[in-house]
Amino acid sequence: MELPMRSKASNAALAKARAMYGRRLTAGDYRRLAACRTMPQLAAELKALPMYAPELESLNVSLARRAQLESLLRQAVYDRCDSLFRYELSSGQKVYRYFTVSCEVDEIITCLRCLDAGRPGDYLFKLPDFLQQRCQIDLYALTRVTDAKSLLAALAGTPYQKLLAPLADVPAGRKLLVYAEPLLENHRHQALVALAPEPRTGAPGQAPGLRDYIEMECDGSAISNAARLVRVHAEPRWLDVYVRRDCTALKPAQWQSLLAAPDYPAFQSRLADTVYGHRLARQSYSFLKEGLQKCQYAWCRKWLRFSTDPALVMLCYLYLERCEVKNLEHIIEGVHYGMPAEELLPMLIGCDEKEPQGRDH
To answer: Which long-range contacts (CB under 8 A, 24 or more apart) does 121-130 make?
Structure first.
């Protein structure tokens, strides 16, 4: 019997996501990149990678700058995810909306980062046409932002104008990103939580779904924030405010125990009895946030391969793709500051993964 068109589209999206992940950077690629000593040398190595060549084609490697490379890497993420989501807008429509919000937040943060550094001209953008049709912000206007007033004018008519309205009251000379980033990240968080279906009541051991991913993503941030606040002995009221628990895999009693920990060792001990503690026990890490990211990377890598839920596979691919670009941003920063490769490589997530099959090295 012939499959319905929706099933065909879903199968195509699953196959495409897995094929795109199979073209990821290898451990050898990361070693070569981390060994670069200058920005032009790094730019030339990045330009030689087939998966980044289209976005870096017009790059003049001898004049390459850090902000320019980071912008082009973001473009690579946009292009790949855009091509994937075209396959499956039927079940991926909500995921695509979240992806669009996430891109908008990233672009505003990047614009503000350039502005705070005194180099507003470094802000660059280039979104795929398919994504620009769904983007709420005028990205051309962001290129002309010089202060809080012009930023709010550029965001006129969008939810971000109201969201970032408090920036108008920031005293002159202050860094705007300090005030804007928490507001923008909360907006991104709410867009992600809006994707979550109601909790399932099925039998234990069933394959994970979209909510399982979202709970893990939200819990990673919440646990990291809680640990940091417990370390500095923050007042309980601040823990309650800054540790978001609106979509979580932990039970209320587990959160109550974690937030009541008198110090960080006690927090670690109590975390060890949770599902995240069991996952962390299988990872090697220096910092809790790093360990949680490694757990999520391993989880996404597994369910990208085995899940049959297109929306879940898309989010898994998006996370793995962002990890790769974040790794490259760490390398760019490391090369910029002259960090040795042996210090830089341990900071990367997933770079020690077994080499993909079928790649030429």
So the answer is: 122/65, 122/67, 122/68, 123/67, 123/71, 124/67, 124/68, 124/71, 124/72, 125/71, 125/75, 126/75, 127/75, 127/78, 127/103, 128/78, 128/79, 128/82, 128/83, 130/82, 130/86
* Single pTM value for the model: 0.89
Task: Say if residues 17 and 313 touch (Cβ distance below 8 Å).
Answer: yes
What residues have CB less than 8 Å from 187, skipping those under 6 apart?
101, 105, 159, 160, 163
Q: Do 184 and 109 meet the contact criterion of CB atoms below 8 Å apart?
A: yes
pLDDT tens for each residue of 216-236: 999 999 999 999 999 999 998
Write a three-state SS string for 132-178: HCCCCCCHHHHCCCCCHHHHHHHCCCCHHHHHCHHHHHCCCCCCHHH
Q: How many CB atoms lie within 10 A of CB 69?
A: 25
Number of H helices, E strands in the chain: 19, 0
